[in-house]
Amino acid sequence: MSDDSIWIIGASMTKFARYEDQDSVDLASTASLEAMVDAGVSIHDMDVLAAGTLFQASTSMGQRIQKQIGQTGIPVYNVSNACATGATAIRTVYLSIKAGEADMGIAIGVEQMGKMGLLSGATKSERNIFEPSGRYGAVMGVDGFLGTETMPGVFAQAGMQYAYENDGVGFEQFARVAYKNHKHSTLNPLAQYQKEFSMEEVMSAPVQSYPNTLLMCCPTGDGAAAVILVSEEKLRSLPSETQKRAVKISASVLTSDPYIESGQVQPDVNTLTKNAAAQAYEMAGLGPEDLDLVELHDCFATAELIHYDNLGLCEPGGAGDFIDSGKPFRDGSMPVNVSGGLISKGHPIGATGVANVFEVTTHLRGEAGDRQVEGAKVGLAHVIGLGSSCGIHILEKAS
Amino acid sequence: MSKQVSIVDYLILDESPYLEVNECTSCSARFFDRRNACASCGATDFVRRRISNEGVLTSFSIVHRAAPSVPVPFVSAIVLTEDGTTVRSNVVGLKDPMDVELGMNLILTTYPCGTDDDGKECIAFGYEPI
């Protein structure tokens, strides 16, 4: 395996939205073609293609994209890994280059969800004869009787567990996370929503799963993102303008959730994130104090708050103080989710892990327009999917 | 034929109902469902074990939005039993869902949650404040 670094030379994302006149292949093709134009390369330069989608995982998405952007016969990997699907697509190309099988490749993430509503939380069975089935011998759907299975509720519980274990964390701190991300999104033209809400509006919005109100939950939607990766050797053969805009992948990590006692009833989103962060910091030879911006997985406001701690952005147990201090705001010392985050930028699941890398890359290139974090040199992109899977990429500006 | 059935097989409908787990004989990890091997240590032998009915509320969410067939609001609960097993259920018996408090002491209770076409009654479990 090569010790040389892997670089990003092209990145693109579609605006996240709900598209009635384009399908998922249109969105993925748009992002792919734009990423190749951004990198100054063509489909003939690609040695490998990885395509990530969750809800269309069995539809040969990568090959369907090839039919629109060029069928060159290269290996295609279709990947699916819950909300870490996009990060997994990037890592698939990364590993192909690391293994020496490819010099350049494209990773694509795409999802078309429309107005999908609540994810998970099965409706009660239509059966009207109670017969035990499945591994728990359940005679009916248990959602609503034995706790909640819906995402807003599961992540609410993750946040409330943190509130139970630490001081200074409550409804107001969770609400402030959403206030921040909605505010940030007003500067991002690629965000699904670009509307600022007051703390009062966030806190008085309809409760989905307390403490998460509607404005503290990410929307469903459509979108795609793509990045072009190259080996260091390949990068040195490309035009100097391409090299100047290249961004180094200093760490690429994927973890799953190790066993903990409570994991069978409440998915543990903490341990695998802490493990991934520790591995990523070590791989990059950097620490959280070196980061200029972070895009983390704020599927719900309660999730963002606990990931401040999991990623080491704050003192252990200090996530409440951290948001109250203003540090994760765009003008603070540790800007988090300046894109608007999943809460406001949107969360077309397969696209999310690539879009986060696009966002960090764009800041490191100094090309983020109104939302630019000035002088950004190092950034971290984090995603987590229940099941569970966590992907972290640390990126550095070319020196 | 019994006219009552547990909502899940780990709820044992005794005179005084309780929960039962599959406990790994090697590392004592506990599982509500059947396991091919232990997720903690990889061993393959398990014994059935009754767990405590009392515990403390370590997390909750007051769920106001769910699938159309699920009555809302309800208080989804994560309960840590006295003998160290984490259980997911609902907090029941509150006058107002907002009366729920992190750290409150709870005890297992059961209640009917539906009847099938043969007249068989389904019994669910929840936790109520002590």
Write the layout of secondary structure elements.
The complex is a heterodimer of chains A (399) and B (130).
Chain A: E1 6-13, H1 24-39, E2 48-52, H2 61-69, E3 76-79, H3 85-98, E4 104-112, H4 151-165, H5 171-185, H6 199-204, E5 207-210, E6 212-213, E7 222-231, H7 232-236, H8 240-245, E8 247-256, H9 271-284, E9 293-295, H10 301-310, H11 319-324, H12 341-345, H13 349-364, E10 378-385, E11 389-397
Parallel strand pairs in A: 2-3, 2-4, 9-10
Antiparallel strand pairs in A: 1-7, 1-8, 4-7, 5-6, 8-11, 10-11
Helix pairs in contact in A: 1-2, 3-13, 4-10, 5-10
Chain B: E1 4-6, E2 11-12, E3 18-24, E4 30-31, E5 46-50, E6 54-63, E7 74-81, E8 86-91, E9 105-115, E10 121-129
Parallel strand pairs in B: 1-10
Antiparallel strand pairs in B: 2-3, 3-4, 3-5, 6-7, 6-9, 7-8, 9-10
Task: Please mark out the parts of chain A with pLDDT under 50 across 5 or more consecutive residues, or reply none.
Answer: none
Q: How would you sum up the major sheet of chain A?
A: 9 strands, mixed
Number of strands of chain A: 11
Give me the count of strands of chain B.
Answer: 10
Describe the largest sheet of chain B. 6 strands, mixed
Briefly note the CATH topology name of the largest domain in chain A.
Peroxisomal Thiolase, Chain A, domain 1
Strand line-up in the sheet with most strands of chain A: 3-2-4-7-1-8-11-10-9
Helix amount of chain B: under 10%
Distance separating the two termini of chain B: 34 Å
* Average pLDDT score of chain A: 96
User: How many domain modules of chain B?
Assistant: 1
The strand line-up of the biggest sheet of chain B is 1-10-9-6-7-8
In terms of structural class, how would the helical and strand content of chain A be classed? alpha/beta
- Give the distance, in angstroms, between the N- and C-terminal Cα atoms of chain A: 24 Å
